[in-house]
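Input (structure):
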């Protein structure tokens, strides 16, 4: 019990230190009493975030259950729900763990703990809880799904199978995130071909893993009917299909309805759970070894590099910052994965529209408009990723408006790079320019929202800032500013694609003007 208290105390110190570093730059006179109040408020925010994600997972995974007897049979609904449940748990757990582990690693929160007279097992436990702090609120999600599945199937054992697979999915995603963290964050220096290939491989592996989990969750509507049909066609081979994760979730819950055969899916679920725990333990060991003392590696021998005068275009501060951010996103995608996360939604719209032959104009415009507003979070993520390097930016003569413009341009360029090609393909396939026009409008809205947020946050940082965090008042002010962008945009979506493009263009010009004055 005493060790548990010490463990909780150490974790609380790490948590308060992270908040202190994020607030100290904007509030140098931050005292202990105010820090305690901010810590309590952040804990409430973590709970609210967990409840929001829990609601999203519950709504998505329970959706097929609502269609039983109308569009789906019970077995098809269970299989579809199980696939949605597994992929959403994988996607959310992977992304949230990537954020929290990146913060722990970049701020160096755990290195001072190595000097304490604490056992290695306790330190690894602190490292695990700190690196997965954003994921911890999701621990209740498998229980909630298990209860809903048991009510639908009228079987507590079926719900237990679903809950066990939920924890297995969560641990598997966390293990993948922690295992990739040392590879992605490994400081590889050198100009040799091996060094460049090492950086490329680490980035591609992270993006591929994120895309795999996210695409599965977005494309599940297409996958679920196909899997149900496949299970029906296989006939005698069905007994092999239910052994394979994630198909084993739905098949296992259906089999657990029979009390006499319930021990089989329960045993299989426990096997997957144990395997995921073992994978998590091994990934945590790698993550811990990197966190406590990673040093740059040089691949290849010393290379003679000719120092050339930088191109004149990069001497423009905003463009130089844009290039730096894109390079940083390439070297460590955990610092800016929100730049590319909306691509998954565009792919989902592409596949759905191609399957149906069309999509309502209002749904396309509203969805793309929401993505444009969400890109403001990517601008904030880019600013947070600067960490303790603000002194270097300001020592180079960078002004705050140039900092904000560089972040907004990075969001605009990244979003345009995938949104326009995907929707050009969609418009050409369906002979409708609506999709590409709405994509262009959302790109302009992404620039406007990113510029507004980046300009506001840039006023909160200075040369002494090591990390940054927003207060509740800051969040309310930014929400009001983004709502002001959405107020004229939403009625324009009802009017059609061209009015939407016109409104988005006017907003972008106004935001650019306000950014430069």
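Output (sequence):
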């Amino acid at each position: 019990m005493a060790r548990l208290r010490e463990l909780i105390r150490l974790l609380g110190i790490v948590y308060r230190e992270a908040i202190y570093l994020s607030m100290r730059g904007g509030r140098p006179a931050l005292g202990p009493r105010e820090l305690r109040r901010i810590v309590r408020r952040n804990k409430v925010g973590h709970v609210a975030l967990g409840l929001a994600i829990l609601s999203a997972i519950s709504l998505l995974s329970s959706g097929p259950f609502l269609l039983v007897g109308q569009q789906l049979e019970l077995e098809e609904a269970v299989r579809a729900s199980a696939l949605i449940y597994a992929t959403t748990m994988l996607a959310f757990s992977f992304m949230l763990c990537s954020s929290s582990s990146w913060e722990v690693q970049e701020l160096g929160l755990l290195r001072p703990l190595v000097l304490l007279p604490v056992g290695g097992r306790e330190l690894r436990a602190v490292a695990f809880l700190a690196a997965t702090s954003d994921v911890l609120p999701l621990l209740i999600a498998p229980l909630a799904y298990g209860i809903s599945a048991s009510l639908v199937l009228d079987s507590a054992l079926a719900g237990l199978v679903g809950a066990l697979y939920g924890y297995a999915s969560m641990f598997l995603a966390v293990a993948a995130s922690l295992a990739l963290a040392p590879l992605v964050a490994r400081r590889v220096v050198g100009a040799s071909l091996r060094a460049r290939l090492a950086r490329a491989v680490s980035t591609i592996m992270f993006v591929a893993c994120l895309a795999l989990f996210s695409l599965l969750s977005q494309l599940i509507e297409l996958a679920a009917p196909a899997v149900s049909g496949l299970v029906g066609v296989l006939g005698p081979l069905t007994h092999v299909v239910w052994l394979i994760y994630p198909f084993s979730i739905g098949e296992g819950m259906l089999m657990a309805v029979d009390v006499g055969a319930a021990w089989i899916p329960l045993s299989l679920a426990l096997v997957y759970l144990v395997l995921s725990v073992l994978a998590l333990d091994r990934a945590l060991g790698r993550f811990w070894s990197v966190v406590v003392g990673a040093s740059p590696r040089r691949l290849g021998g010393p290379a003679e590099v000719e120092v050339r005068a930088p191109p004149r275009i990069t001497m423009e501060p905003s463009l130089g910052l844009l290039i730096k951010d894109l390079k940083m996103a390439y070297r460590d995608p955990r610092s800016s994965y929100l730049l590319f996360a909306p691509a998954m939604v565009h792919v989902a719209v592409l596949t759905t529209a191609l399957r149906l032959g069309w999509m309502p104009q209002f749904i396309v415009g509203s969805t793309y408009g929401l993505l444009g507003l969400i890109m403001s979070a990517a601008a904030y993520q880019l600013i947070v990723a600067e960490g303790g390097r603000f002194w270097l930016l300001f020592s180079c003569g960078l002004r705050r408006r140039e900092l904000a413009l560089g972040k907004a341009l990075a969001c605009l360029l990244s979003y345009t790079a995938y949104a326009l090609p995907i929707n050009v393909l969609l418009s050409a396939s369906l002979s409708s320019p609506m999709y590409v026009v709405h994509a262009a409008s959302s790109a302009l809205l992404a620039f406007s929202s990113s510029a507004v947020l980046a300009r506001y946050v840039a006023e909160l940082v200075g040369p002494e800032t090591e990390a940054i965090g927003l207060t509740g008042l800051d969040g309310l002010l930014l929400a009001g500013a983004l709502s002001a962008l959405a107020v004229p945009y939403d009625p324009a979506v009802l009017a059609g694609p061209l009015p939407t493009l016109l409104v988005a263009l006017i907003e972008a010009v106004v935001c650019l003007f306000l950014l430069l004055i």
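Notes: Residues 315-517 form one domain. The first helix runs from residue 2 to 24.
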